[in-house]
Amino acid sequence: RISFSLRQHHIKKKKKLTTSLIMSGNKLIINSALRAASHLRSDVLPKEASKVAAAMLSSAPSGGKHTLPDLMYDYNALEPVISTETMTIHHSKHHNTYVTNLNVALEKLDTAVNQGDASGIIALESALKFNGGGHLNHSLFWDNLCPKGYSELKDGPLKEEIEISFGGVENMKQDLSAMTIGVQGSGWGWIGYNPKNGGIECATRANQDPLEATTGLIPLLGIDVWEHAYYVDYRNVRPDYVNAIWDVINWDAVEQRLVDATKKIE
Amino acid sequence: MKIHHDKHHGTYVANINKATEGKPEKPILDLMADALEATPVRNSGGGHYNHAFFWEEMAPFSQASKTKPSAALEAMINKSFGSLDEMKSIFAAKAAPGAVFGSGWVWVCVNKKGDALDIVGTPNQDNPLMKGVLGEVAFPIIGLDVWEHAYYLNYQNRRPEYVDNWWNVVNWDKVNSNFDYVTKNHSGVPVKG
Fold it and tell me: ipTM of the predicted structure?
């Protein structure tokens, strides 16, 4: 039994994003006012304001802790393409470790920022890219997967764009499959939206390098080809895994990302 | 072991043979110095050399446990790292998931000058013999595969546990002979195949 509603999920996600944007916007304004106020003697500030001031002023520059997102489906939902065992380890161990280590790196970043330690900030670059990328990539990955038969690529903006950019769905699948299978070592295959020309294209990234931060392409569909993503089920035969994963792609999520990406530009 | 040897290593051998078809036969060691000049040689040639090197330095626990570093190697280890335990600890740090991102290898090498040992990580199928991979070429005497395929079935994401346990199957007799060879010849260790 699989129980989830895509629509509900997207609405919830939008609400969460909007709320956090509002909060961080307010934080900026309040922070500067309070910083100015705190130059006055602190016993001049009303008690409530100084308490709030303390909380605001100590808030982490990097925005606080990240958490492992829940999957929208059970660990067994992607069988037989991806096994329960793989999903369990991949989500609760691998992705979880990226989240944990990202939080560690961000804590160090906040300390370095607060101390004005430029060298310390720069030293965190690879840990942030690796763990931040790992968290971003996997969060995107889970959401562009769904149980077999749940989603199909219907007529709409995504299918249209695929026709334009690739000449057809089969061409797109062949191109992305070939590139993704060909990744040396660990990495990802992506379809991304190119805001410069309004088209979509395939790209691969090594390790956990995040697509948007390193290429400017907005991620629409990701395929993880680190060996941990397929080794239990396919051993060394990566082509079988990549060819099979097309059966569990959540086309609705991919299309929604394209719609959101094109809206951002307008 | 079976999949690692027959499939992964087997594929590298097939691919390097394809890439060098029609060219004069050369030992795989000889292809390593200039491997960065041709991607197939770098990936498949490196893959072949690295795995051939890997198999030869290991032995079943019953055999391996009876071996230890030679006096000469022990002296070099102590000079370079302080002790064997410290060497293993630096090695573990270099092999950690946050140090070798994704796929790669960790090596104990004799440096180019030949006066100390270094521990280095290299990505994918690169190795220290290849010009351009490290600041300067170095000569491996110990190497550990930390690609996920090397440990996933037994350890899943627990790479540190794999690295820790791996020392139990290191054949120091072979490592000693690697060290002697490198010390005498200032070149990489030849491998079978």
Answer: 0.93
